[in-house]
Amino acid sequence: MDEMTTLKNFRPDAPAADRARLAPGRQRLLDAAAERRQRRRFWPRADWKLAAVGAAAGVAVAAVLVAQVVQVAPTTDTHQVEAEHTTSPEPTDGQWLYEKILTRQSTLNFRDDLNPVPEKGAPAYVELTQETWTQYGSGKSRRMLPSGALDSVIGEANTESPKKLRQEVEKLPSEPQQLLRSLREVSRLGGDYQRIQYVFSNTDTIPSEVRLSLFRALKTIPGVVVRPQLVEDAMGRPALAVHPSDDNPFTRETHRREELLLDPETYEYRGERTMMLVGGMIDSKVTTEETLIVVSAVQRFAAAVNEPGVRP
Q1: 21 is in which domain, residue-wise?
Q2: Measured at the alpha carbon of residue 235, what is the angle toward residues 303 and 261, in degrees to the nearest 5?
Q3: Longest dimension (CA), the chain
Q4: Would residue 118 count as lying in a domain?
Q5: Is the entire prediction scored with pTM above 0.85?
Q6: Which of 117, 283, 292, 312 could cross-link 301 (Cys pair, CB 3.0–4.6 Å)?
Q7: pLDDT, tens digit, 9 for 90 and up, residues 259-287
Q8: How would you label 47-57 residue by residue, b for 16+ Cβ within 10 Å and e otherwise?
């Protein structure tokens, strides 16, 4: 039996994956900050421990999503996409924005959250793809299922639609402290770092001057680190890694660091990454080097489409 068949059959009863499983770092941070507030994407909620389990239960997720790894021509030229946003007309309320997320995820089993173990017979990592369409004016979302069909509309219409968020972000001031104060009106999530993370990860397009202002504001927040060495997202694109300092409560308890990934030249959102730090436990052994748990790569496209299921 080949490896892929083994992977598909490993957990045939695994539940359908959701955004919390695919992007655990962002889900845990935003859920913890928002408490009971519903997010724009309408993925099912999970507390941070369940999100961490979902982060690394790669075999279970892969068994469900392996059929979703589709071939869509990647758009890796950041400057080209930015130029397209500049020249493309604003979508109408009824049009849909397309987003594709590639995730490279460890198959470690996190049933014991502080001591994950390898899954017997599973590869070290799996790659998963999630495609989502979000209606510009309402915020309703649809996603592609493993069968190739679309799911039903996720959630209800939300006032925090892509249109509303884009309009709010475009008006942000350039001065860092004024920007941080203005962001408290855009999002009530957590602290200043979580609000900027929210804007980067949820806004479909951000003008270049606003991205620069957001990045400058990030660097003024106490405890926020911009790592000096570039890392790579799940597509192999170079990225800046930005994160709270390693003495925050979550990292101290779990030895895991959750990073926001940005393009090093344009500061466009690349994705997110979670690392197991030195001193953590894997299979009852203390880690002596940083280990990748999950990394994502987000692709957004300038052109809106008229219905979900259509790719630009």
Answers
A1: 3-300
A2: 85
A3: 60
A4: yes
A5: no
A6: 312
A7: 999 999 999 999 999 999 999 999 999 99
A8: ebebbbbbbbb
Do residues 174 and 190 make contact, with C-beta atoms less than 8 angstroms apart? no
Asked whether residue 311 is domain-assigned, the answer is no
DSSP-based three-state secondary structure for 96 = strand
Burial 121-139 (b: 16+ CB within 10 A, else e): ebbebbbbbbbbbbbbebb
> What total number of domains does the chain contain?
1
Q: What is the mean pLDDT of the chain?
A: 78
CB 237 within 8 Å of CB 76:
yes
In a domain, 284, yes or no: yes
pLDDT for residue 164 is more than 80: yes
Contact residues for 12 (Cβ-Cβ < 8 A; gap 6+): 63
* Total residue count of the chain as it appears in this document: 312
Q: Does some domain include residue 101?
A: yes
- The two three-digit tokens of residue 7, written as one number: 């992977």
